Amino acid sequence: MNAPTLQPDKSRPYSHLVTGVVLRAYAAHRTLRSSAEAKHASQLLLRSLFKRDSYPDRGAPEYWLRFNYPFWFTDLISATDSLSKIGISKDESHMSQAVEWFVANQLDNGRWQLKILKNAKRYDTESWLDLSICRILQRLYS
Q1: Which residues have a Cβ under 8 Å from the Cβ of 121 and sit 6 or more positions away?
Q2: Can you list the pairs that 130-139 forms with residues at least 24 positions away whose Cβ atoms lie under 8 Å?
Q3: To the nearest whole number, what is the mean pLDDT of the chain?
Q4: 63, 80, 98, 142 from 53: Cα distances, Å
Q5: Would you say residue 4 lies in a domain?
Q6: Three-class DSSP category at 84
Q7: Which of 54, 71, 87, 116 places its Cα 20 to 30 Å from the Cα of 22?
Q8: Has residue 94 been placed in a domain?
Q9: Rounded to whole angstroms, how far apart are CA atoms 119 and 134?
Q10: What confidence category does residue 1 fall into, taking pLDDT thresholds of 50, 70 and 90?
Q11: For residues 140 and 118, what is the distance between their CA atoms, to the nearest angstrom?
Q12: pLDDT the model gives residue 81
């Protein structure tokens, strides 16, 4: 017997932290990434870029620019990775702000100036994040 599906508490505010995590699963799925649910969630996440979350856990806007790989939390790279897979255009104003941040923080050697949260050496996190940004930009400009 299946347990009943938990229903959302619509009286509580939306959280970009949680939405970003869930959206990664939709973005990875060939069919579900084009679903109405994924499009709706992507618009919620897109409008939240660089803004404070409603909940205190990683709620400060600075957390958008604190990165980790593999993706654990919702940050600018994990969010734009999902959004670009879902088909959000670089011309959308919020997405163009993200692209502007990537351009402004690219170093002369082609890599990015990033604040890594942890495990930077263990997983060569910096290289994986650099590759993620390259893939995001490739999707947006292809």
Answers
A1: none
A2: 132/69, 132/77, 132/81, 133/77, 133/102, 135/81, 136/77, 136/80, 136/81, 136/84, 136/102, 137/99, 137/102, 139/84, 139/85
A3: 92
A4: 9, 17, 17, 31
A5: no
A6: helix
A7: 116
A8: yes
A9: 21
A10: low
A11: 28
A12: 98
Is the residue at 57 inside a domain?
Answer: yes
Q: What is the total count of domains within the chain?
A: 1
pTM of the full predicted structure? 0.90
**Inter-axis angle of helices 76-86 and 36-48, to 10 degrees?**
140
Q: How many CB atoms lie within 10 A of CB 70?
A: 9
The residues that bridge with 112 in the sheet, in sequence order, are 106
- In-domain check, residue 81: yes
Which tokens hold the place of 75? Answer: 């940050």
Say if CB 20 and CB 78 are below 8 A apart. yes
Amino acid at 87: G
| pLDDT tens for each residue of 90-130 | 999 999 999 999 999 999 999 999 999 876 667 788 899 99
Question: Residue 122, SS3?
Answer: coil
The whole domain housing 84 covers 16-141
Q: What average pLDDT score do residues 47-58 get? A: 90
d(Cα 123, Cα 96) in Å, to the nearest integer?
29
